[in-house]
């Protein structure tokens, strides 16, 4: 089925609706205006994906434009280019630097040349609209609002937000996850994962050292400790956070703009938590091993894959990249089981054994359980090999 392409916004409709209940008149008006503008943009750019593939290559060259608080892209002025001097505008410089860090992350960690893998130029538009409470990727460009200054800060102020949005472009040119229901939640989750990894990579943080938050700098900037989302603990990023952390809490809503396309921003908490658990189970720098597993799985996925499809792919990729029964593969299996997404490729009895191997944090008892789990996987592989030989012998005797 052919579907139109929504723009990918960092702040979902349910949060903007929450802001419309604010006691602050300016906050209410900014939230309403943002919702209406975003809905209009969705209609205007519903076929944007068809043009993205035709974007001119430019070795990931960056150009930052200033919309001067209008909603016009054609009248935006160039504020900074790849070879030009720094701007006097902090928003412009933050956008420029964050696009560069994200581009360099994909190049150095995954050997990917810009979001499309072919050097697609990176255009960013700052100061979009008046008190626009969002940032988005529309299939061709990055767009940043200034926020209302109270509940939402300048959207160029968070590296993981910018990396999140630009990563939607990577998904566009790989799996192309359809932006609705479970595939849409996977789309959002991949951007949260890469957004967090870009920040961790830039700070040289291990999985244990990272905060695993998205948008802490721009969501209620005056309040410490909250964020738009938490990969570590979905549902706790802010008061009333609706993100589930397991399938038994899956959120059902209409596949419409106002229903957030089947709660893609909420249900992304489930694969987000799986990634966090796998990263903690493996340990070290998350972008080195579990990040590679997720990236290679993204490339191997199809547009309508569901959670279980993607879980199976990550398990298989972990085995291909690091070995069957490896720490990495065992951690991936344990992570998906923890969020109640069963793997088709693993017998249920073997999957249950993971609870003895991992406690979700790579803590005490992990090595003994892991060794037992590895032996079980090895035994299973031996049985499969034996059966294969028997079948081959039978065929030869016929």
UniProtKB/TrEMBL annotation:
Keywords on this record?
A: Hydrolase, Metal-binding, Metalloprotease, Protease, Secreted, Zinc
GO MF term set:
metallopeptidase activity
Please report the stretch or stretches of sequence annotated as the Peptidase M4 C-terminal domain.
175-341
The answer to whether UniProt assigns keyword Zinc to this entry is yes
* SUPFAM superfamilies to which the protein is assigned, alphabetical: Metalloproteases ('zincins'), catalytic domain
Q: What is its main location?
A: secreted
Q: Which Gene3D superfamilies match?
A: 3.10.170.10, Neutral Protease Domain 2
User: Which enzyme class, named as a word?
Assistant: hydrolase
What this protein needs as a cofactor is: Zn(2+)
Domain Peptidase M4 span(s) in chain numbering? 99-172
InterPro entries in the record: Metalloprotease_M4 (IPR052759), Peptidase_M4 (IPR023612), Peptidase_M4/M1_CTD_sf (IPR027268), Peptidase_M4_C_domain (IPR001570), Peptidase_M4_domain (IPR013856)
Q: Where is this gene product found?
A: Secreted
Its domain of life?
Answer: Bacteria
- E.C. number, please? 3.4.24.-
Q: What does this protein do?
A: Extracellular zinc metalloprotease.
Hey, which family's this protein in? Belongs to the peptidase M4 family.
* UniProt name for this protein: Neutral metalloproteinase
Q: Species name for this entry?
A: Streptomyces virginiae
């Amino acid at each position: 089925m052919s579907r139109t392409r929504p723009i990918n916004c960092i702040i979902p409709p349910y949060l903007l609706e929450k802001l419309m209940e604010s006691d602050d008149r300016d906050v209410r008006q900014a939230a309403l205006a943002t919702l209406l503008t975003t809905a209009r943009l969705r209609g205007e750019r519903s076929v944007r994906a068809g043009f993205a593939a035709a974007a001119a290559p430019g070795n990931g060259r960056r150009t930052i434009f200033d919309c001067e608080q209008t909603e016009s892209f054609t009248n935006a002025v160039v504020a900074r280019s790849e070879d030009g001097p720094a701007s006097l505008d902090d928003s412009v410089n933050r956008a420029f630097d964050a696009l560069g860090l994200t581009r360099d992350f994909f190049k150095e960690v995954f050997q990917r040349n810009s979001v499309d893998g072919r050097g697609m130029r990176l255009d960013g538009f700052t100061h979009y609209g008046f008190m626009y409470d969002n940032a988005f990727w529309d299939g061709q460009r990055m767009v940043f609002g200034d926020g209302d200054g109270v509940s939402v800060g300048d959207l160029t102020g968070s590296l993981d937000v910018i990396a999140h949005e630009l990563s939607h472009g990577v998904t566009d040119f790989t799996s192309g996850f359809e932006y609705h229901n479970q595939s849409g939640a996977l789309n959002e989750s991949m951007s949260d994962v890469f957004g967090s990894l870009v920040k961790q990579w830039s700070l040289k943080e291990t999985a244990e050292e990272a905060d695993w938050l998205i948008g802490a700098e721009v969501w209620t900037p005056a309040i410490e400790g909250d964020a738009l989302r938490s990969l570590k603990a979905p549902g706790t990023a802010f008061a009333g956070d609706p993100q589930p952390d397991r399938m038994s809490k899956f959120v059902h809503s209409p596949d419409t703009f106002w229903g957030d396309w089947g709660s893609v921003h909420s249900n992304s908490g489930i694969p987000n938590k799986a990634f966090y658990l796998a990263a903690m189970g493996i340990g070290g720098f998350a972008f080195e091993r579990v990040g590679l597993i997720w990236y290679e799985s993204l490339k191997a996925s199809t547009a309508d894959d569901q959670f279980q499809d993607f879980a199976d792919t990550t398990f298989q990729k972990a085995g291909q990249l690091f070995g069957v029964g490896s720490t990495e593969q065992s951690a991936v299996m344990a992570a998906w089981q923890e969020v109640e997404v069963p793997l088709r490729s693993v017998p249920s009895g073997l999957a249950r054994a993971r609870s003895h191997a991992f406690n979700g944090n790579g803590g005490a008892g992990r090595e003994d359980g892991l060794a037992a789990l590895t032996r079980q996987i090895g035994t299973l592989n031996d049985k499969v090999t034996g059966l294969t030989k028997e079948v081959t012998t039978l065929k030869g005797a016929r």
